[in-house]
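Pipeline run #58 for the internal structure catalog. This entry was flagged by the ingest filter as a single-chain record with no existing model, so it goes straight to prediction. Upstream metadata was stripped on purpose; only the residue string is passed forward. Reviewer on rotation: M.T. Logging verbosity set to normal.
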Amino acid sequence: MAASFAGLDLLATAVVVLDDEFVVRYANPAAENLLTAGARSLIGQPFLGFFAERAELERSLEDARVIHWDYSARNVTYVRTGRQPVPFSCTVTRIDAFGLALLAELRPIGEQLRIEREARMESEQQANRELIRNLAHEIKNPLGGLRGSAQLLERELERAELREYTQVIIKEADRLQTLMDRMLTPHRAPRLEPLGLHEVLERVRSLVRAEFGIEIVRDYDPSVPDVLGDREQLIQAVLNIARNAAQAGSKEVVFKTRAIRQITILKKRYKLALELQVIDDGPGVPEEIQDRIFNPLVSGREGGTGLGLSLAQTFVHYHHGVIEFESRPGRTIFRILLPIR
């Protein structure tokens, strides 16, 4: 029987196979790790016996078996003797192979929510980027005419105090022009080359130290491999996050790197990924903008353009990675995940 499902042994996702009586007939190594039990102790056991919501889950499994549809359950609680219960997402698929009935895929709720959040954010950011790019193009055209008209008007004015007003128009037009250029900048495709992330971080450390006079604490994992990336884009992405922390008044910023195995990023499974955490002790991201913090023109700082995190996310997405964050007063963590391909 195990040989029939040998291909499932290679999956990083936990999978168990059930017969018509919902008895476990196969469990892959990922399921053994997730359920903290060996295949020998799992096989032959009633699947429903593992979970607290037995009656509800049984009805759903029955529907999947009889009606031939996939069933997803979000609040299935795995009960472990002497340990804390663990919430799972359970997806069951009818298979009708080798006298067996159902294939159940198990994921911890936290991972499932993260995957869904990443997919939603990617869709939203793609729409936002297209909107901002179109808007920037529309604004740039009249700006040139506005600035040119102000210059012509200035030549006709004799009183110096009136020329001060035209200078205001010219300077504000230049400021808006710079802003539009920044909005359009990230649409350059990345120039990929092998590079060490710690080299990128050391560059950012020196820039932040020169600009704000604060030190950044290193917590580097020396075992992390090189990534295939665009040096300038990655420097800018990390710099934007670190600058936000410094401008918010943080007294300490930490760069922490780790290698992570078997992780899903933007719906793709990778054997290895690189994790960078930028941790600060500042006041935190205001709660009212936390769900929009990566949107363009959204800023929690007075006078901010709201482009820094939007550009950072765009650059990271160009590398098939994601940015996540969690924030409370006194501790904010921005987490960048980059796949090693």
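catalog note: The mean pLDDT is 80.
catalog note: The first strand starts at residue 14 and ends at 18.
status: ready for reviewer M.T.
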